[in-house]
Amino acid sequence: MVSNKMNPVVDSHYPDAFSELESSMQIALETYSNVHRGNGHFSMVTTHLYEQARIIVLEYLGLSKGKFTVIFCTSRGAATLIKQLTPESYQLVSSRDVGLSLGVCALAVKRKALSKVAPLHTGGGTARLISKDWVVWAKDSEKFEAGTPAIANIIAFAKALRMIHQSGKDIFLNPPAQKLTAKEILYNDELDNFSGQELLDEQRKTLIGSGALVPTIKGTRTFVNLDNSASTRTFTPIWNAFRQTLRQPEQVKKEIIQEVKSICSDFLSAPLADYEVIFTSNTTEAINLAAESLGRESDETTEPVVLSTLFEHSSNDLPWRMIRGCSVVRLSMDGEGFVDLNEMETILKAYNEDGQYGKKRIRLVAVSGASNVLGVCNNLEEISRIAHRYGARLLVDGAQLVAHRKVALEECGIDYFAFSAHKVYAPFGTGALVARKGLLQFTSNELERIKSSGEENAGGIAALGKALLLLKRIGMDLIEEEEQLLTRKVLNGLAQINGLDIYGIKDPESTRFSSKIGVIPFAFKNKISTQVGKELALFGGIGVRSGCHCAHITVKHILHVGPGLEKFQKLIVTLFPKLSLPGVVRVSLGIENSEADIDWLIQMLDIIADKSQIASKKEVKKQMDDFVSAAAERVYR
Question: Residue 294 and which of 51, 372, 604, 634 are 20 to 30 A apart at CA?
Answer without folding.
Answer: 372
